[in-house]
């Protein structure tokens, strides 16, 4: 768990530095940083998604994930909860909405990808913290840039990181037998598709309810396994 705590503290430290930088930034520059963050998210999403080896797995997982997300109104529940949680730091309703958006965006960017799963499993099974330490450095830098662009809501992703990565580390022995390299790749590719959607939202090109796509990540292992057993696709 030590590496997870280091990762959490790295996000907090990066966010604090980002807040200091944000105070001196004019609104025009903040807007430009947001656009840059959106473009970077699009690039990350495209680079990861095109590595998909079996596009049918992604399609079926996303369709099932959206059906689950929409039925549960995941986007509405998460946004309302986040706004209530963060409203004490805001000056008004609009600011609360921006804090919620920063929280959700940073959680996804920092916790969707193969590095999170593999690094946490390595830490839990082999006490190998190298990948999580590398991720901590990346999250520290990302925390600075995202907080400078989006505000204090990014700091909330530190709590999510602690719970999500910590959970994988503690349950590594039970999770590992069911997480092959193939499953990790499929989850990472689907996660990158969601990050692409995030980037498009940040650029204000779309208004995709990204949170309603998240159940797709939980569906991927089952779809990928079923396709492997049935010999469908790659």
Low-confidence stretches: none
**Radius of gyration computed on alpha carbons:** 18 Å
Question: What structural class is derived from the secondary structure elements?
Answer: mainly alpha
- The tally of domains stands at 1
Number of helices: 11
Task: From the structure above, extract its key features.
single chain, 234 residues, mainly alpha, DUF554 domain-containing protein, transmembrane helix, membrane, DUF554
Give structural notes.
The N and C termini lie far apart (36 Å). This protein is mostly helical and 234 residues long. The chain has 11 helices and no strands. The radius of gyration is 18 Å and the shape is globular. It has helices spanning 2-23, 27-49, 55-72, 74-86, 93-111, 114-126, 130-150, 157-170, 172-175, 181-202, 215-230. It has one domain (1-230). This is DUF554 domain-containing protein. InterPro entries: DUF554 (IPR007563). The chain crosses the membrane at residues 6-25, 32-50, 56-78, 99-118, 130-152, 182-203, 210-230. It comes from Anaerovibrio slackiae.
């Amino acid at each position: 768990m030590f590496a997870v705590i280091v990762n959490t503290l790295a996000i907090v430290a990066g966010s604090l530095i980002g807040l200091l930088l944000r105070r001196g930034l004019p609104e025009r520059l903040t807007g430009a940083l947001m656009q840059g963050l959106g473009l970077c998210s699009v690039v990350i999403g495209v680079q990861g998604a095109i590595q998909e080896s079996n596009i049918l797995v992604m399609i079926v997982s996303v369709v099932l994930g959206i059906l689950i997300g929409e039925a549960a109104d995941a986007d509405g529940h998460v946004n309302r909860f986040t706004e209530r949680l963060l409203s004490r730091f805001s000056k008004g309703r609009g600011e609360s909405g921006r804090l919620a958006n920063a929280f959700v965006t940073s959680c996804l960017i920092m916790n969707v990808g193969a590095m999170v799963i593999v690094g946490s499993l390595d830490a839990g099974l082999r006490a190998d913290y190298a990948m999580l330490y590398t991720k901590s450095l990346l999250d520290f830098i990302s925390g600075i840039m995202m907080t400078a662009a989006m505000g204090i809501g990014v700091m909330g992703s530190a709590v999510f990181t602690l719970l999500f990565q910590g959970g994988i580390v503690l349950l590594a022995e039970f999770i590992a037998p069911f997480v092959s390299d193939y499953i990790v790749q499929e989850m990472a590719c689907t996660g990158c598709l969601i990050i692409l959607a995030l980037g498009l939202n940040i650029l204000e090109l779309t208004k995709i309810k990204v949170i309603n796509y998240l159940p797709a990540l939980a569906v991927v292992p089952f779809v990928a396994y079923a396709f492997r057993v049935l010999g469908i696709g790659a």
